Amino acid sequence: MNYVCNQLTLTMKQFNRYLIFSLLSVCIFSCSKENTTIDAIPTSMKISFNKTTVVADGIDEVTVTVKDQDGNDISLSSLIYVDDVPIRGNLVFFENNQQGSHTIYANKYGIFSDTLSIATTAPAAAKYSTKVLAEYFTGSWCGWCPRVDYKLNAFMAANTDLLAIQIHNNDIMADRNVDSTLRATYGISSVPNILINRKAFLQENGDVMNQSDSTLLAPHYQKRAVIGLALNTSITGNTLNVTAKTGFDATIHDSLRLVVLLVEDNVIAPQTNYYDNNDDYAGNPFYNSGNPITNFVHNGVYRLSPTTISGITIPADKQVKDDEYSANFSLDITGLNAANLKVVAFVMFADSQTRTGIMNAQWVAAGQNKNYD
Description:
Largest sheet: 6 strands, mixed
Number of domains: 2
CATH superfamily of the largest domain: Immunoglobulins
Strand content: 35-45%
Structural class: mainly beta
């Protein structure tokens, strides 16, 4: 079963978080050595905000306080709704594409609070451009994957702020540890699959000639970047040196992680092709291309990561507006074609927080530099 939000499928991990939180909001217990008692059911509830407006930049937030008829703070045991959609916790924030007035109310055991409205204000012009990362789960044995590979290449050609990297499964290009870690983390059980910014799955329409599904990426492009990345790289022998810099246009209190990885373009390897001689797909670009396609070109193939695929923690004292965090890495590229390598870096929210996914990304050809943009 798919769970859809803004035409993008929520990751299994996100859905489980919402489900668990919803269940907890219905069944919360207070335990002591003597007995276990059910949390009291309120007879009435009222909400309040700690501010009257919030900047729609994805970072500024309003705290919602919920109190029962006796003035007890029951915020953390209540389920809060924003525009009739339940959220985790009691901190509310809005992205740049969610400007306007929003309604907020709370519910506990079927008792509803009053409904209040809060208005957003437009953020200042962004200091950094927004990049979008697509992690494409594939395999050389996947006969339908040439379609998705073709479409992602077209999407990237149409918008240079998109980068797709390939995470292979059970073939000569696979890193089993990385593949299994990402599959377990984001609930991936099949290929092809496209995870956007580690937040939602792209619902690709299944038609290689119909690229209207590229519009599903629009909400990600529209998000205002509050951090930017720059990359300096150099190659000495078989060592690739990387300096990854993260600049902050806002003070961020969430725990953040920096991920740096290396991908390779122009990897030639056979690719299973179910479109070959398949008259149901006579107009497909892979019709009569052979099965397998012996000289198929794979781009953005994951090779290695000095931070691990889950990243390293950015020190909290560096996550301050106008500050910068810098980290240096040395990568052994023995056996890889340096001319085809690309360094990719991104910053993401750490696990178990209200905010999820990748904040921004950057990439550059190995041996080259990429400034903040």
